[in-house]
Amino acid sequence: MQEHASPKLDRRTRKRLATRQAISDSATRLFMEHGFDQVTIDEIAEAADVGRMTVFNHFPRKEDMFFDREDEVREMVFAAIQGREEEMSPVTALRLLAHRCIEDRNPLLPLFGAPLRFVATALASEALKARARQMCSEFTRVLAAMLAESIDRPADDTDAHLLAGLLVATWSVAFFEGYNVADRNGDAEAAGQIFLRLIDRGFQAAAAAVSGTPYV
Amino acid sequence: MQEHASPKLDRRTRKRLATRQAISDSATRLFMEHGFDQVTIDEIAEAADVGRMTVFNHFPRKEDMFFDREDEVREMVFAAIQGREEEMSPVTALRLLAHRCIEDRNPLLPLFGAPLRFVATALASEALKARARQMCSEFTRVLAAMLAESIDRPADDTDAHLLAGLLVATWSVAFFEGYNVADRNGDAEAAGQIFLRLIDRGFQAAAAAVSGTPYV
DNA sequence: ATATCAATATATACTCGGTATAATTTCATA
DNA sequence: TATGAAATTATACCGAGTATATATTGATAT
C-alpha cells in the first residue's frame, strides 16, 4: 500500500496519497467487476479498509472514483493550442492532436485495447454517462475560453463558443463511431481511421462556421 | 381541480389527469419560487394534497415534473423534416423551423418573455442541467435516425450522426448566446437575431460536413 | 343493484448517496 | 515534549427513489 513513493513528500502526504490510491484501486476493480451502479460506497470502503467518511473525504462524488483524468485531457489540449507553431491555426493544432493521439495509442482517447472495457463500463451506467456529459459541457466552455485567449479575444467571444461547440460535438461523434467499430469488429485500425476521417470532416466544417476569423 | 375536461375520457382517466395536473402545478410553482433543489417531494405531495407515492406514480423522477414537453419538441422537429416540400433538404427544413420559432415566439424555444424564468430556474440546478443534457443527447440520436430515415438510409448511418451532432451543438450554442443577450440586455429582438445568425452559420457548416450526401 | 376485477392511490419500510458535526488519531514543528 | 493542524472516523441525519402490501375507486358483466 505504501509503494515507496517519491521521498520529496512528507509522511503525512505519502499516507494520504496511499489511502487515496487504495480507495481508487478498490473502486476501479469493483466497478469493472460488478458495474458502477451495483457497487456501494460501503463496499468500496470495506474493500479499501477505510471508514466510509474517508472515501467521501477523497472523492466528494462516487463518479470521481471513476473519472480521474479530466485534468490531463485539459492540459493536453491546452498544450496543443499554446504550443502550436506560428502561423498554425488553433483548429489545425487540435486536428493534429487527434492524429497524434491515434498514432500514439494515447489512453486518454480510449479506443484501443484495455481502455475499451473502461468505456463499456461507463456506457452501462446512466450516472457515469451523465458525469461524462457534464465534463464535456464544462470542457466546451473551457475550450472556448482557451481558443478566444489564443487569439486575444475576450473569453465570452461568440465565435469561440460556436467553434468550441462544433469541435467538441465532432470529437464526441467521431469517438463513438470509432468506439462502435472497435467494440463490434475488434478492428482497432479501422476504428482509428473512422475516428480520424470524422475529425477531419467535422473540424473542417467547424472552421468554415468561423471563416473570416483568426480561429482558422 | 377537475377543470371540466374533455368528455371523451372516462371518469377514471379524468381523475388521473387531474391528479397529475395538480402535482405538476404545485411542483412548478414551488420550483419557480424556491428553486428546484430546495423543494422536496414531500412538500410537493403536501401542496398537491396527495400521498408521496402518488407523486412517484405520475413522475418517476423529480426532473420529470420540470421538463414536461420533450415530446412536443420531438414532434415539431419530426413534422418539419417529414412535412418539408419536395427538393428541400432536411437541413434547410430545420433552418426554416428555427426561423419560424423566432417569428412565432414559440415557447418551445424559451427565449422571450415569461419562459426566460423557466430557463433561469433550470440553469440554477445541477440536476436540471444534467437532465437537459441527457435530453439533448437522446434527441441527437433520435434526430440522426430521423435524418437517415428521411433519405432512406439505415438509422445508424455515420453521416447522419455527424450531421445530427453538429446541428444539435449549433442549436445549443445559438440558444445560450441568445439567452444571455435576452437575460442581460432584456432585448428580445437582439436575442432572436443572435440566435438566427448562429443557426444559419452553424447549419451551413454542418451541411458542409456532409456535402455530397442527400442530407443537404 | 351488485359482485367482480383492474387501475389508482397510499402507507410502511427500506436502500443508498451525500452532508453535518464532533471526536479521535497522526504527523510536523516549535 | 507540548502544541496545533491535517486526516480519519463514528454518529446521526436528509432526501430521492424502490419494494411491497393494502385500500380505494371506477368500469363492467351478471
From TrEMBL, chains A, B:
Alphabetical UniProt keywords: DNA-binding, Transcription, Transcription regulation
Keyword Transcription: yes
InterPro entries the UniProt entry points to: Homeodomain-like_sf, HTH-type_TetR-like_transc_reg, HTH_TetR
Domain of life per record: Bacteria
The keyword DNA-binding is assigned to this record: yes
Record-annotated DNA-binding residue ranges: 40-59
Alphabetized Pfam families for the sequence: TetR_N
SUPFAM superfamilies noted in UniProt: Homeodomain-like
Domain HTH tetR-type: 17-77
Protein name from the UniProt record: TetR family transcriptional regulator
Annotated organism of origin: Methylobacterium indicum
